[in-house]
What we know:
This protein is of the alpha/beta class. It contains twelve helices and eight strands. Strands 2-1-3-4 form a four-stranded parallel β-sheet, with helices on both faces. The chain starts with a strand and ends with a helix.
Amino acid sequence: MKTGLFIPCYVDALYPEVAVACYKLLKHLQVDVTYPLKQTCCGQPMANAGFENKAVPLAEHFEDIFKGFDYVVAPSASCAAFVKLNYPRLLQGKHFCETSDKIMDICEFLHDVLKVKSLPGKFYHKVSLHNSCHGVRELGLSSPSERNIPKYSKLKDLLSLVEGVTVCEPERVDECCGFGGMFSVEEPEVSTQMGIDKLERHMATGAEYITGPDSSCLMHLQGVAKRQQKDIKFIHIVQILAAGL
Length: 245
């Protein structure tokens, strides 16, 4: 089972420790993982801004880099969802899209493919779990609150395998944090207020950390917390899952 590790551009530039944690965890779990060189942005920012034609060459390059793998995993629910849902349309008429069916968020991969039952790490902290919109509603990492279906959370299942961690969830468990990619640029006032409201709900849990599968959401909330001078820390979920490696 050959697995390609896709590291989104903002993770590479701002949160390289998340990329390292992914690689260490996959190697620990004896996954045949490779980090292909010359990988680039998946094209989501361009497409979200209305310039889909600029995203097509990046999609073609992504396909060329990752088409030889059985799975492609990424520490970003939003980037994984973009490849999965949008690449077939962007590449329509050019060639069959191979990576759409192979791409997975790393938590989805750990839970659904590897079916991980134990992890070696310890993390003696109380965390508030942030359910990102793309992860919930496009990748199914947890059950959407607006749907009348049995509740589940693949993220909570994985965190339960880490010794010492206490997991909380905020009121309005899967309400958007306000980031939304280009939304935060085009509607900064609304985005900021949504972030303030979401941060308050996370902090009301009494958690020391806010965690989740999307560094973009965590980055937005971290920026709000810094401006509001709130005393809470942020950590990507894969860093908790890989604690001690």
